[in-house]
Amino acid sequence: MDVVSALTSALPATAVITDPDSMDAYRWDRANDPDAGVPVAVVRATSTAEVQTVVRIAAEAKVPIVPRGAGSGLSGGSSAIAGGIVLSLDTMREISIDPVTRMATVQPGAFNAEVKAAAAEHGLWYPPDPSSFEFCSIGGNIATNAGGLCCVKYGVTTDYVLGMTVVLADGRAVKLGGPRLKDVAGLPLTKLFVGSEGTLGVITEVTLRLIPAQLPPTTVVAMFPELADATNAVLDIAKAMRPSMLEFMDKPSINAVEDELKMGLDREAEGMLVIQSDEPGEHSSVQAKIIEEICNNNSASECYLTADPDEGEAFVTARRIAIPAVEKKGALLLEDVGVPLPKLGDLVLGIEKIAADRQVTIAVIAHAGDGNTHPLLVLDPKDEDQQKRAQIAYGEVMDLATGLGGTITGEHGVGRLKAPWLAPYLGEDVMELNHRIKQALDPDNIFNPGSVYTGLV
Hints:
This protein folds into three domains: 3-88, Uridine Diphospho-n-acetylenolpyruvylglucosamine Reductase, domain 2 (2-Layer Sandwich); 95-212, Uridine Diphospho-n-acetylenolpyruvylglucosamine Reductase, domain 3 (2-Layer Sandwich); 218-403, Vanillyl-alcohol Oxidase, Chain A, domain 3, CATH 3.40.462. The protein is 36% helix and 20% strand. It has helices at 3-10, 20-23, 48-61, 112-120, 138-144, 151-154, 189-193, 227-240, 251-261, 283-297, 309-320, 322-327, 344-358, 384-403, 419-426, 428-441, and strands at 16-17, 41-44, 65-68, 85-88, 95-98, 103-106, 124-125, 161-167, 173-177, 202-209, 211-212, 218-224, 245-250, 271-277, 302-306, 331-334, 361-367, 372-379. The strands form four sheets. Strands 15-12-14-13-17-18-16 form a seven-stranded antiparallel β-sheet, sandwiched between helices. The chain is globular.
């Protein structure tokens, strides 16, 4: 079977891309996987029916499919496969808001920011808030169960997914869940597809829960001369309250951001916290004062409190741009290991030691309030020895996190970068369960082979 001919015959001419230069833009996500292959075609589907057509053709020919959203992933989860099909959902961007039920019906290519904006027109809010919210897609967020800056109080993507339409490996489109807040009929299959990284099916529409608009927050920014003081402050804040944001940056990330924004951040500080409270009325400022006191009690060298929304947003922006700011220092190996909150200090200090021992730069930013860290290993593309040390450090960071009772990924996904560490993390029995589910839903392994699950045939 000539797959390209079958695709071009069954789909609109504009939907199928075979020119190598044009396909190049669809071969990588932000992880820049060096092993990304050259697909036989990129298909830009515009509907569930078109996705079904692509899947049926691929299933008959047993050709792999890599579902792709905006390409903003950080784990190599949408790296193209040589001889496969990249199924891009980037043109499927429709959004419909129902203000009565406080729900949104969204196609997977819509950006997170577009959903937020559409909800805001009705006085509503979609809380999941990755730093890349302006250019990451809802489908990609669901694929990795993305979290973000507000998840410490408001939860992650799965907490807002009520239903979806999924195209299965045989081309059937099934509807899971729907616009109902309570529904326990059958197994919770909707949740199974959240975080499945394109390995079980292709999501073509989702129903999302919305909540009333967030109240204006009060912001506290604290600088610390010692890492341990910053992480201890996180624990003390978490014991006392549930802030709407509790973010961390270490010295390398503070300096990278200051190089970019020149906003007067303390370059000598070892740690920085950005904390917000969005409690109603005076409760926000009261909570912020308690946060300020906690930070000062943990030896903060500087503590700044503001109720001005623009000033607060400036510090949130500083946290959001940390990854691209560090990326300007060299190529990156990105991680998102997470640990139980009491182990946050051990993780951050352990990463600092790994960086020193391996003589590599590791900038650490974190959704500190839920123990999810993003260590960023900076690579010098011209220094092979440094790259080897960084690769060793990458594994040591993962081993450190799991040794502390943590995980190899909190929200970026396993993808291809972390696949070698999945089986040791899950253990033999749980890995076998994962394989059984994968094989039951995708017996020919056409969906994103090589991502997440290695060794399947």
